[in-house]
Amino acid sequence: METWLAVLVVIIVVCIKYVWDIPTEETFPYKILYRCVYLYGVISYTAARMMSYVNGKNFAENYRTFLTIMIPTAKETESTNSDVLIKTTEFDGIEVRQYQNVRLTGDGERPAFLFIHGGGYVLSSPGVYDDLLKLICRDLGYYVAQIDYTLAPEGKFPRAYNDCLTACLWFFRNSERFSVNPHRVVISGDSMGGQIAASVVQALCKDPTIPKPRAQVLMYPCLQFLDMRTPSYQRTRWLHGERPGILNHITVSLFLSFYLFGKEDTRFVNEVSGNSHVPNEFRKSSACMKRLNHDFIPGKLKFHSYNKAPENDKSSRPKELQDNAIWEENQNMLLDYRLCPMMGELEGLPIAYVITCGVDVFRDDAIMYCSNLRQANVPAIHKHYQKSFHGAITFPKEIIPSACEMRDDLLEFLRKEI
Question: Average pLDDT over the chain, rounded to whole?
Answer without folding.
Answer: 87
